[in-house]
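Design request, tokens follow.
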């Protein structure tokens, strides 16, 4: 297909692209921008289009990916980070400390429950909580990765059962 034929086919699909945008946005301006971005990318990357493939599907994929990328970019732009060094300006109570008598008691109980599980579950679980990757634990213990994941899962379940008494 020549470049002229390709351009003509894309231009003829403008109305179809308008219908596609209804799945992504109700705003008319956003819809037009999305169509323009899609057509621009299609023309820019025309060499990536393979003969005898679905042009509508290819354009829809470009449109969907463009919409998702724009959405993520907008989300990042709305995200604000507070890098205030004086955190006492924040009126947030610190409930996540073990410095209170109750917190220290809970910490000891959690540690006791963890240490009571079977050794073959305890070693992978502790290594995982210390930050080791599954493959590193598997190599160290000389067992398959699936076994490591299984043991960590069962360790969590046992600890949860033991700590269930503290939920009430």
């Amino acid at each position: 297909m020549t470049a002229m034929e390709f351009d003509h086919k894309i231009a003829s699909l403008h109305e179809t692209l308008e219908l596609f945008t209804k799945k992504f946005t109700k705003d008319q301006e956003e819809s037009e921008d999305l169509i323009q971005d899609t057509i621009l990318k299609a023309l820019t990357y025309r060499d990536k289009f393979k003969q005898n493939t679905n042009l509508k599907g290819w354009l829809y994929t470009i449109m969907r990916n463009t919409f998702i990328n724009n959405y993520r970019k907008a989300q990042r732009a709305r995200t604000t980070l507070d890098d205030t060094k004086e955190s006492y300006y924040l009126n947030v109570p610190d409930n996540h400390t073990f410095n209170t008598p109750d917190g220290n008691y809970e910490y000891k109980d959690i540690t006791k429950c963890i240490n009571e599980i079977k050794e073959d579950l305890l070693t992978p679980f502790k290594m995982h909580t210390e930050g080791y990757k599954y493959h590193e634990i598997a190599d160290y213990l000389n067992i398959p990765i699936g076994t490591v994941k299984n043991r960590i899962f069962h360790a969590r379940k046992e600890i949860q059962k033991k700590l269930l008494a503290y939920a009430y």
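Comment from the thread starter after seeing the answer: thanks! The radius of gyration is 28 Å.
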